[in-house]
Amino acid sequence: MDRSDADMIVDFARTYQVCRECGFVDRDQGRLKVGYKCSVCGVQSEGGLMFLELNVLVLIRHIYEAYYFSDTAVEESYMAEPEEFKDLAVVVFFCILKEVLLERFLLNFMHVLNLPEGVMTRMESDNDSHRRRLENLFPSLTGQKWKDVLSKLPSNDPKKYNILDELLLRATKARNELLHEANHHSITSKLAEECFNAIPVLLDCYKHLNNIYVHPVVNAAR
After folding, report:
1. What is the mean pLDDT of residues 26-36?
2. CB proximity list for 202: less than 8 A, separation 6 or greater
3. Of 61, 73, 133, 185, whose CB is crowded by the most CB atoms within 10 A?
4. Alpha-carbon distance 153 to 9, whole Å?
5. Is 25 in a helix, a strand, or coil?
6. In this prediction, what percent of the chain has a pLDDT beyond 70?
7. Is the dihedral of CA 39, 199, 133, 149 positive or negative?
8. What's residue 1's pLDDT?
9. Contact yes or no for 44/51 (Cβ under 8 A)
């Protein structure tokens, strides 16, 4: 292929732009133009600002490269069959992505809330695992449980983000069985494909979380 799907998904991820003034995130490509008025706050843009940092874009690219990885590159591997090798990589990278996105959302939210540095450090150290961040830190900052928030995110399909959450749980369980028990049998081609296809939904999830929690604080402080 002249242009890989990995390039295409990174290009898609880059379309998430954030208003420098009010912190609202959408995929309005007009934000790339200097002087373009934000549809939310009305302030003219100074140019595009990507919502996702470079390290997140690189991680997304890794997932897609793994998914389309050439079988010949691993056909001599003694670790796994080529298809299994690809499935393992996709699921593990996907789990890293969902953990990175949660951590960056929580850190960003704490920053815009202007929490004292000492308080932020203590909250981070007290919640040093993904599970603790999800079950303790997220509701502490937002006032709502993760599952309750997901069920209320805007979507034409009311079950869309609950289905995503169920996938995140299954992927995490399979990844943990691999890491802690050296058991890769739960990581199937079907699970890898689900993770692969869920990336846009996962990105939309964090777009909505930003607009529900971060944006109002930034906008109110203008």
Report:
1. 96
2. 97, 98, 101, 164
3. 133
4. 23
5. strand
6. 91
7. positive
8. 33
9. no
Closest to 67 in 3D by CA, of 206, 202, 204, 199: 199
List of residues 6+ apart from 147 with CB closer than 8 A: 162, 165
> Rounded to 5 degrees, what are φ and ψ at 15?
-70, -15
What's the pLDDT at 72? Answer: 44
* Cα dihedral sign, 10-15-18-20: positive
Number of other CB atoms surrounding residue 69 within 10 Å? 16
Return the number of other C-beta atoms located less than 10 Å from residue 63's C-beta. Answer: 23
pLDDT in tens, 90-114: 999 999 999 999 999 999 999 999 9
Above 90 in pLDDT, residue 53? yes
What's the count of helices (H) and strands (E) in the chain, helices before strands? 10, 2
- Whether the CB-CB separation of 175 and 92 falls below 8 Å is answered with yes
Alpha-carbon gap, residue 56 to 61, rounded angstroms: 9
3-state secondary structure of 20: coil
Q: What six digits make up the tokens of 167?
A: 């996938």
